[in-house]
Design goal:
By secondary structure, this protein is of the alpha/beta class. The chain is built from 11 helices and 13 strands. The protein has 2 domains: 216 residues, Spore Coat Polysaccharide Biosynthesis Protein SpsA, Chain A, CATH 3.90.550.10; 101 residues, no CATH class. Strand 1, helix 1 and strand 2 form a beta-alpha-beta unit.
Length: 331
């Protein structure tokens, strides 16, 4: 059995599999490759069986999103390391070797992210992860190489190996034993920010999360849910509040959540003035859903929470007031 399993979550993505699965097969001789299918109704499974019989298939009975989809599938996959890869990722030659080397030489490193570049503009970082993620005091995520919608060109400024706060779910490496110890992704999230929550829980237990620049992949992004989709707004705002409820140090918990609710309200007003009424409604829905799930998620809190977790107090202030459009401007 090979040490690493590359697991591609699929939902009605036969076109993406046709386009991107060949690069994964070509450049992953160290791995066993699996398709974790989220109850697709298209020809995805038949396509894989007909064209790539060496690829394993795990068929989930229902579509439980990113979180539940991976949790269900990984119960059936035996490997020392998991590489959880979006179906719209193109990998490159030797992309796995630096990751395996780091896992084997650093036993306390639990999670790793590669350099994620834009498939459509290959000299730019991609929105979902870029060169490694962080969050500010209020739970707003940002990356080295991407602050809000500002994407940096890859000029080698992040050609390093460094500790980060969160690794992107677009291409997410984790030790299987740590995944199981943390009980996998939180299925209340369904999709979006569940990887940040999992990383935060790993940090709370004393593990490290790293970015390894020698491993490079290209991500299309938005292939499942476009950035402009109000459902994405709903999930991001709701899940961020759930994540803060579960993981913030107790002394900061209620003051930060109150401040975050106010900031979300300001974002909602901004959506109204820009004519994006559906996104404002999505924030309102997110808050009501958060209230309903608060007690359940508060009960998930661990005994220990790390007290220092952000690079800047407010990424909103750093970006919009101080005009810090790149990571180097705000740390």
């Amino acid at each position: 059995m090979k040490k690493i399993a590359v697991v591609i979550l699929n939902w009605n993505g036969v076109k993406l599999l046709e386009q991107f699965l060949p690069s994964v097969i070509q450049f992953s001789p160290e791995a066993t490759i699996y398709i974790a299918d989220n109850a697709s109704t298209d020809e995805s499974i038949q396509f894989v069986r007909n064209n790539y019989p060496s690829v394993g298939i795990v068929q989930n009975k229902t579509n439980k999103g990113f979180a539940g989809g991976y949790n269900d599938a990984l119960e059936h996959i035996d490997a020392e390391f998991y590489a959880l890869v979006n179906s719209d990722i193109e990998v490159t030659e030797n992309w796995l070797q630096p990751i395996l080397k780091t896992f084997e030489s650093e036993p306390n490193t639990a999670i790793i992210q590669p350099k994620i570049l834009d498939y459509k503009r290959k000299d730019y970082f991609e929105y979902a992860g870029a060169a490694g993620g962080f969050i500010d005091k209020y739970g707003y995520p940002f990356c080295r190489g991407r602050i809000f919608d500002t994407l940096e060109k890859d000029n080698g400024q992040y050609n390093d190996d460094t500790e980060i706060f969160w690794a992107s779910g677009a291409c997410f490496f984790i030790r299987s034993k740590i995944y199981k110890e943390l009980n996998g992704f939180d299925e209340d999230f369904f999709a979006h920010q569940e990887e940040i929550d999992l990383c935060w829980r790993a940090l709370n237990k004393g593990f490290k999360i790293k970015y390894i620049s020698e491993s490079i992949v290209y991500h299309v992004g938005g292939a499942t849910l476009q950035q402009s989709n109000p459902q994405k707004t709903y999930l991001n705002f709701r899940n961020s509040l759930l994540m803060l409820t579960k993981n913030l140090p107790h002394k900061n918990l209620f003051s930060v959540i109150f401040s975050r609710l106010v900031l979300d309200g300001i974002a909602g007003v901004k959506f109204i003035f820009s004519g994006q009424f559906a996104h404002c409604l999505a924030i309102i829905r997110a808050h009501f859903s958060f209230y309903c799930l608060f007690s359940k998620n508060f009960s998930k809190r661990e005994k220990n929470q790390i007290s220092i977790y952000f690079k800047t107090k407010s990424i909103v202030y750093s970006y919009y007031v101080k005009s810090g459009t790149v990571f180097g401007d705000i740390i």
